[in-house]
Amino acid sequence: MKRRLFSVFICALVPLFLISCGTSESSEKDDNTLYVYNWGEYIDPEVLSMFTEETGIDIVYDEYETNEIMYPKIEAGAVNYDLVCPSDYMISKMIENDLLQEIDMEKIENRANIGEDYWKNSEEFDPGNKYSVPYVWGTVGILYNKTMVKEKVDSWGILWDEKYKDEILMQDSVRDAFMVAEKYLGYSVNSTDEDELQAAKELLQQQKHLVQAYVVDQVRDKMIGNEAALGVIYSGEAIYTQRENPDLEYVIPKEGTNVWIDSWVIPKNAKHKENAEKFIDFLCRPDISYMNFDYITYSTPNIPARELIEDEDIRNSPIAFPVLSDYSLEAYTCLGEKADRHLNALWREVKSY
Predict the structure, then answer these.
(1) If you average pLDDT over residues 229-233, what whole number do you get?
(2) Which contiguous run of DSSP H or E holds residue 8?
(3) For 232-255, what is each residue's pLDDT tens digit?
(4) Burial class (CB in 10 A: 0-12, 13-18, 19+), 53
(5) pLDDT for residue 19 is more than 80
(6) Do 270 and 97 contact (CB within 8 A), yes or no?
(7) Where are the domains of the chain?
(8) How confident is the model over 101-137, as pLDDT tens digits?
(9) The CATH fold of domain 138-258+327-351
(10) Domain 10-136+261-321, what fold?
C-alpha cells in the first residue's frame, strides 16, 4: 500500500533525465510517450531515465499519496494514465468497476522472474492474474524496542498490555487497525460479519487509552527516536528503522497478518497500452527490480533480483523475505462501498471513544 505517504517530486529532482515531466492533463503526446501514476518515492529515478534511453519512450510521471486520492482520478477518466500502481484491495475495486484492461502477459516476458507465491497471493484480488503484475510487497507487523520490551513479542495481544500504556503506536488506517483486532480475535481481515466487526471495534476501543498516537509515517521516526516501545508498521519501513536504530526488532505475530502487494495495472482509458506493457516488462528485469528494491527498501517479488542483493543479512532477512507459508497471511480485498462506509463509521467510533 502501500506505503510512504510523503512524496519527493521526481520532476523537480531530475531535470536532466529524459522524462517529460508535468501533468498528463496537457495536450496529447505522440506514441513515444508513457503516462505513469505512482506513489511518491516509489521508484528509483534512474530507472525512468534508463527506460527512456533504451526505448526512446518519454515518461510523464505523476505521484499520489494514497489509493483513495488515486482512485477518483482514474474513475473520472479526466487524465489518461497508461500505468498505475495501486494496492491489492484497490485493484479489486478497480476490476469490479471495470476501470482496468487486461494485460497481454505474453508481452511481459520477464514475468517468469516473479515468484509463484506472489502470483498466488495476487489471485485473491485479481483472479486469474489478468489485470496486474506484482511490483513490491510486504507485511504488517509489530516493531518493538528491545531495550524497552524484555518479554517475547509474538502476539498482537501485547498491544493491549497495560504496562505499555502511552508506549504503543497504532496505524491511523481503518483497514490496518481493524486487521490487528480481527487477526487477534481469529477473524478474516476481509470480514463483513456484523458481530465480528463489532467485536473488533470494541477491542480497539478497549485499547485506545493505551495508545500514545495513531500515526502513519511518524511510527518510523518515533521508533527510531526511542519515543515509543511498540508500533504497528509495514515491513519495508521496519528495514529502514533497523538501519537507523539497531535496538529495534520486527515480528509477524503468530495470529497472522496482512500481506500486501502493490502491482502495476493499465487503466481502461490508457492511450499507450503497448508502451505500458514494455515498461512493466522492463521493471520485471532482475537488475531493474534490484535497483528499485535498493532505493525504496520494500521487498521485491522478483526472485533473481533478490539473488543480486550482496548484503546477506538483507538477502536472507525474515523481515524483507519471510517464508510466506510459515504464517497465516491474507491480502486485503475490496469489501464494497456499503461495507467500506460501515467500517469507516466504526473506525470513527473508535477514534472518538
Answers:
(1) 97
(2) none
(3) 999 988 988 998 999 999 999 999
(4) exposed
(5) no
(6) no
(7) 10-136+261-321, 138-258+327-351
(8) 999 999 999 999 999 989 998 999 999 999 999 999 9
(9) D-Maltodextrin-Binding Protein; domain 2 (3.40.190)
(10) D-Maltodextrin-Binding Protein; domain 2 (3.40.190)
